[in-house]
Amino acid sequence: MHSSVHQTENLLFVTLLQLIVMMAAARAGNQILRRLGQPGVIGEILAGLILGPSLFGHFFPGASVFLFGAKASAPITIISQIGLVLLMFQIGTDFELAT
């Protein structure tokens, strides 16, 4: 019983840490690109590319595996899928069929 509680707390801590890092990087990228007169979403996309295996994982593999693991964790995968569903829902509510 005691070890399962510890595992759950550890999973929660790692997931929250991952979310904080991703959201902070996206926010910083958004602000930087907006100050440069570009759409903020481009900065958010760049932040995701920077945090991914192509840059952060390539230059700092130990830190990348420590923070994000070798593959996406189940909670992050679920959160990303929920985000995708909500994005598609929002697009659907804004879509107008021309008649």
Give a quick set of tags describing it:
about 80% helix; about 100 residues; mainly alpha
Describe the secondary-structure layout:
Blueprint: H1 2-35, H2 40-51, H3 56-59, H4 61-68, H5 74-94
Helix pairs in contact: 1-2
What does this structure look like?
With 99 residues, the chain is mostly helical. The chain has helices at residues 2-35, 40-51, 56-59, 61-68, 74-94. The mean pLDDT is 91.
Summarize the structure.
By secondary structure, the protein is mostly helical.
Arithmetic mean pLDDT: 91
**Alpha-carbon distance between the termini?**
61 Å
Q: What is the total tally of β strands?
A: 0
SS summary, helix count: 5
Are there runs of 5+ residues with pLDDT below 50, and where? none
What class, by secondary structure content?
mainly alpha
